[in-house]
Amino acid sequence: MADRFFPNVLPDFVSETTEQKEEVGDTLMKLLSMPYSSLSQHFKRAALDLKETVTLDTWGLTGQKVSDFTLYCGTLGTAFLLFKSYQLANNTNDLSLCLAIVDACNSASFSSRDVTFLCGRAGVCALGAVAAKHAGNQELLDYYLSQFKEIKLSSNLPDELLYGRAGFLWACVFLNKHLGEGTIPSTTTRAVVDEVIKNGRQLAKKGGGSPLMFEFYGEKYWGAAHGLAGIMHVLMDMELEPDEIMDVKGTLKYMIRNRFPSGNYPASEQDRKRDVLVHWCHGAPGIALTLVKAAEQATICGLRKKLELVRSTLLLLLCQEFLCSLGFWR
After folding, report:
1. Where do the annotations place Zn(2+) binding (predicted)?
2. Could you tell me if residue 111 is inside a domain?
3. What is the C-alpha to C-alpha distance for residues 63 and 111, in angstroms, rounded to an integer?
């Protein structure tokens, strides 16, 4: 496991030495300011410096060539970073470079059959459309939206986040969030949700105790990348029927009941006795983000109790000797 995590050498607590009273209106800045407001500007500067380094290494020094177009591991991830930087700092140079990189990824992904936000064509088209809107380029916005609507989902697609139906739905959520509800109509998303719910219920009937269960290459994963956490996170952004809400709620409760004493979670149904993986793909980091979302929705879970569960899960991430990537779920 030595290659699966970084030792956390930071102290458990550093007291705040000076108070800086500042109005924090931006949501991201509120996040960066926790627990001390004076930290927010330090985080912001560090993040913007890191953005420059990442952009140089993944775009400038590569000769602006795309070997992997995906958002998850490839060049589109740099474009997404630039878009987030633009949202934070309102630097139009970041937005222009984002669009240039998306254009290169568009060419590289044109024949791809992958359909998800993180690893497929949907991510390229969704980010391209949203960035084009911010740039005021209606022609480019229309182009990427039309390309997105040409994406076809095969019948043998898995249901998970990285390569499956949930990953396509996540791209739909991204578009509707930034371009307006109904950009991708509910008729489109509902058909995909129906398939996900149907598959989850069918597999759950074979036993295990969860109302919904899914497989990816024969493994019943729990985590964000391939399993329950990622799928539940996306389903909570969908318009669900009352019985579907109960199934999502029951699935989350099943996971909480069966977490490890450490606060971590199993990687899969088949791996319920090994408490070893603590990262976004498998384990507490990805599941914590799903529980945060559940705690925000009164229709899914009782807020107070679930917030405490989220708190304890996040404390696990802070206190164990791991620095975990939490992904980019917001």
Report:
1. 281
2. no
3. 22
Binding-site annotation, residues: 281
- Interval 2-30 mean pLDDT: 59
Annotated binding site for Zn(2+): 281
Contact 231, 200 (CB under 8 A): yes
Encoded amino acid at 294, one letter: A
Tell me the per-residue pLDDT of 162-174, one tens digit each, with 9 for 90 and over. 999 999 999 999 9
Which tokens hold the place of 148?
């997105």
Take residue 317 and report the two structure tokens written for it.
């991430």
Residue 207 has which token pair?
Answer: 């036993």
Amino acid at 28: L
Q: How far is CA 54 from CA 45, 49, 57, 63, 327, in A?
A: 14, 9, 5, 14, 16
pLDDT digits (tens, 9 = 90+) for 89-111: 999 999 999 999 999 999 999 99
SS3 175: helix
Alpha-helical (H) ranges within 236-321 are 242-257, 284-296, 303-319
CB 147, CB 132: distance < 8 Å: no
* Alpha-carbon span 97 to 82, nearest angstrom: 7
216 phi and psi angles, rounded to 5 deg: -135, 110
In the structure encoding, which two tokens stand for residue 265, read together?
A: 């979670």
Both tokens of 87, joined, read: 């949202």
Contact present, 58 and 42 (Cβ < 8 Å): no
The range of the structural domain enclosing residue 252 comes to: 226-330
Distance CA 146, CA 149 (A): 5
Looking at the chain, how many residues does it have? Answer: 330
Q: How far is CA 271 from the centre of its chain?
A: 23
Under DSSP, the state recorded for 281 is S
322: in domain: yes
Q: Say whether 49 sits in a helix, a strand or coil.
A: helix
pLDDT score for 319: 44
**In a domain? residue 29:** no
Distance CA 162, CA 312 (A): 27
Q: What's the N-to-C CA distance of the chain in angstroms? A: 29
List residues bridging with 221 in a β-sheet. 268
Q: In the chain, how many H helices and how many E strands?
A: 12, 0
Per-residue tokens: 84: 């987030």
